[in-house]
Amino acid sequence: MAKPVLTPDQLQHLEGRLLQERKRSLRALGLWERQARLDREEGNSELAGYRDHMADQGTEAQEREKAALFATKEGRYLYRVEEALHRLRTSPDTFGLCQATGAPIAFERLDALPHARYCIEHKRTLEEDGDA
Hints:
By secondary structure, the chain is mainly alpha-helical. The protein has a single domain, classed as DksA, coiled-coil domain (Four Helix Bundle (Hemerythrin (Met), subunit A)), CATH 1.20.120.910. Helix content is 67%, strand content 0%. It has helices at 8-43, 54-90, 107-112, 120-129. It is elongated and about 65 Å long.
């Protein structure tokens, strides 16, 4: 049997980091959902038809688009965190190995970005090629 990439203490630390990131992401998505609900309720009020100016309507539309983009981005981030938690729990012996090269991912990188799937060398190659 191959030697695990990370120690049990490191794995426990990374699981805690992933759980923190999941909690933060869920909280951020919850805030977005509450704001979207308030915006919908405000739009349904009797005064909704009395806008000050067309530019105000454009600004509100732009803000809604930005909020939706944020939620989409945060949702993708949450998916990556959940995926990493699954990898960590189902295959702790291989968690921390680059999924492309099989090389160990530095613990410092995993601590900073606990859902990282690639070692820094491969990630740089992806970014240079425009695939990141």
